[in-house]
Known about the structure:
By secondary structure, the chain is mainly beta. The protein contains three helices and 23 strands.
Amino acid sequence: MQRFSERDAKYAYNVEHASIGTVQPDEVFEVESVEGYSGYFRSPSDFTPESHAQAEAHKWAVTGPITVAGAEPGGAVAVTIHEIEIVTPGVVTYGGYSRDVDPLEWWDDETAADVYPIENGYVRFDKQTSLPARPLIGCLAVWPAGRGVHAKLQGRYGGNLDCRELHAGATMVLPVEHQGAGLYFGDCKALMGDSEIVGPPEVGALVTASAVPVARPESMEWPRIETAEELMTIVSGRPLEWSARQAFRELLNWVDDDFELPRAKAALLLAMVAHARIAQISNTDYTAYCVAPRDAFAPYARYRINPRPATRIT
């Protein structure tokens, strides 16, 4: 099995980066994801103004780009996450989160660090509390159209989406703008709630994934996520309510394309079963995602057997 090293990490998504390797459609491969603070805080005592500045300068490392054979501009690539193995403790930086301060300022309130042991699938928060780990990928991207962008950014190419649903068992479909797609992986977390108003534990991880070129549906403008139970669309922008409404529209377009249900009725059904959620409001653009259960649309399926998020390119 091919394994792509964290030594090949970058700090941008840029088509000018040389590919670090090629995977064939459906080939299973491994990617080493850099811990979000690049190992600067191995214990709380490691936090100093100097080490914090160094860690900030090395945040958002993403391993890539990885070429996907057969991925073509105008198409899409479906990336399935098979496993996320946590290989480091969880690291957080934090501040006082004062009652008298606008919560918008909490994100940059970083005056200390803590390290959470992760053992037997649990994050040990303190002596009283251990929580089941639910690792996710914070950054998953393809080469964006046009010039490169910093890895902390997000857009139609994916990027720093910080969506808690990008976990093992999920498939993300990304629009392809350049031959080979150019996949980047990074910013894994051990466990995260919606919104990322303050930072969850960053971890180093070994991601096991596969990718396959697929046809891009005409209505697809933003990334999609599928699991065995749910369909999701994910949009980044400002204000947050714009992202939420666009995510709902993307999901409605998807249902309109793939199910035998009049568009107005599909919208009304989504109004009853879909949820617009906040992925993150900590980054440059805010990310919302819209989630609907598959079984609500099963009676209207146009294709009774649909093992892929879209039709595979041959």
